[in-house]
Amino acid sequence: KQEVTQIPAALSVPEGENLVLNCSFTDSAIYNLQWFRQDPGKGLTSLLLIQSSQREQTSGRLNASLDKSSGRSTLYIAASQPGDSATYLCAVHGYSTLTFGKGTMLLVSP
Amino acid sequence: NAGVTQTPKFQVLKTGQSMTLQCAQDMNHEYMSWYRQDPGMGLRLIHYSVGAGITDQGEVPNGYNVSRSTTEDFPLRLLSAAPSQTSVYFCASSYGLAGAGRKDTQYFGPGTRLTVL
To answer: Which of A3, A69, B11, B16 could make a disulfide contact with A26, Cβ separation 3.0–4.6 Å?
Structure first.
């Protein structure tokens, strides 16, 4: 059974810092890995999807990497802003189902 | 496109009552799924569908039924609500899930917050 772990569970940083969120998974037989953002009381917003054949994807200040063989992905956020405060979730795509980590709660202070 | 829509946004039920959570998408997605989100448990898959007429169970299917008569709609039915079903329910959709590249991107609805007394 696929298990997804996100470290740290919570992170607090001052505005302007660069930061890294980690995601690890136990079964490397994945098709994609997707990073989401969830604001309190809201749904999930897709940030990036990395296909299993890719090493990284970039969108603005966000960069996600994937090392399938070691079962790891990282989400790098450059020059963090208070508006980045949210919970970040990673999810791995199996053949027919998605498995989520429990998320990293990020707080960026002005 | 409205994307993925869910109704209702909030619902309070008494133990034993039944109800249907509605989910619809207008993106012509084949894959649709239901999750529940509970504190400390993360998101867990309830049921999913890979196309009209095809459904399958996820990690926590007990107490829930689904059907998929059209591509657009994927309702979730609670047959006899229990307090353990108090949760936030999310519906999601995508073109595919495995091997369709960026079309595998999952899109989520805003959620239904359900309380069972």
So the answer is: A3
pLDDT at B1 exceeding the cut of 90: no
Identify the band that residue B41 occupies on the pLDDT scale cut at 50, 70 and 90: confident
Two tokens, residue B3: 């994307």
What CA dihedral angle connects B92, B98, B101 and B106, to 10 degrees? 10
Distance CA A54, CA A34 (A): 12
For residues B38-43, give the mean pLDDT: 89
Q: A45 CB near a chain B CB, below 8 Å?
A: yes
Q: Mean pLDDT in chain A? A: 95
Q: Kindly list the residues from chain A whose CB atom is less than 8 angstroms away from the CB atom of residue B47.
A: none
Contact B79/B63 with Cβ under 8 angstroms? yes
Give the separation between CA A88 and CA B73, rounded to whole angstroms: 28
